[in-house]
Design goal:
- This protein is an alpha/beta fold.
- It has helices at about 10-20, 45-55, 60-70, 75-80, 80-95, 115-120, 130-135, 150-165, 180-190; strands at about 35, 60, 100-105, 125-130, 170-175.
- Adenosine-5'-diphosphate binds near residues 42, 46 and 104.
Length: about 190
């Protein structure tokens, strides 16, 4: 017997496609900076880079800029604490959000009120992902906030989810499709939004 509370995969897919339409807000904003937000390991860095290449604009990963200027993120957290990291992050994000570029933020950058105000003026792509799908992507141990693994990831995502939703122009879920297919879907959205 089919349980209405547990939709089939096909039904979920349909619902998801409809949701993507419904969640499209603020269509009249300038396209750049085109900013990727979302939880850790949603694919912001990888998909942002692919989208920038296709749109032929520079790509900025704010974490990579922080690392280039200040060293590894894990070390910054260990030696100076999260507050210090967030201050460095805010500086880099403020600059990046003035550029005609595709910009991928770190998952926690949206916590800063000034960044939230800046993002209200940007095209913002929210990449979501399920816990089940992200489990396989969390290797490497580079993320200092995930010492407790998937439990930490879920807790942090649940805290931030309303913020991601409020800031998003559109959401794409990255749980079930390869990176290049999602990047193509984002590029299509950039050409069809009105
Ligand atoms: N759609 C996807 N399918 C499979 N693996 C993915 C997908 N998106 C991201 N990954 C993998 O997850 C890891 C984290 O991706 P990354 O782009 O660094 O995420 P973020 O910047 O959001 O933390 C990488 O190893 C990447 O290859
Ligand atoms: O969500 C977060 O607070 C963080 C996300 C990381 O970036 P990704 O989202 O690209 O993994 C990185 O900025 C840092 O480890 C903190
Ligand atoms: Mg990243």
């Amino acid at each position: 017997m089919r349980d209405a509370a547990k939709p089939t995969q096909q039904h979920q897919k349909q619902q998801h496609q409809e949701q993507q339409h419904q969640e499209q807000q603020h269509p009249a904003k300038p396209l750049f900076p085109l900013v990727f937000i979302g939880p850790m390991a949603a694919g912001k860095t990888r998909i942002g880079r692919l989208v920038a290449r296709t749109l032929d604009v520079p790509f900025v990963d704010t974490d990579a800029r922080i690392v280039a200027d200040h060293g590894a993120i894990k070390e910054i957290f260990e030696q100076h604490g999260e507050e210090h990291f967030r201050a460095l992050e805010r500086e880099v994000v403020a600059q990046a959000l003035t550029e005609k570029a595709v910009v991928s933020l770190g998952g926690g950058a949206v916590l800063d009120p000034d960044t939230q105000a800046d993002l209200a003026r940007c095209s913002v792509v929210y990449l979501s992902v399920s816990a089940q799908a992200v489990r396989r992507r969390l290797g490497g141990g580079k993320r200092p906030l995930l010492r407790g693994g998937i439990a930490d990831w879920k807790r942090i995502y649940n805290q931030r989810r309303p913020t991601y939703e409020a800031l998003a122009s559109i959401r794409f879920d990255t749980s079930h499709r390869p990176l290049d297919a999602i990047a193509d879907a984002v590029v299509t959205w950039t050409t069809t939004r009105t």
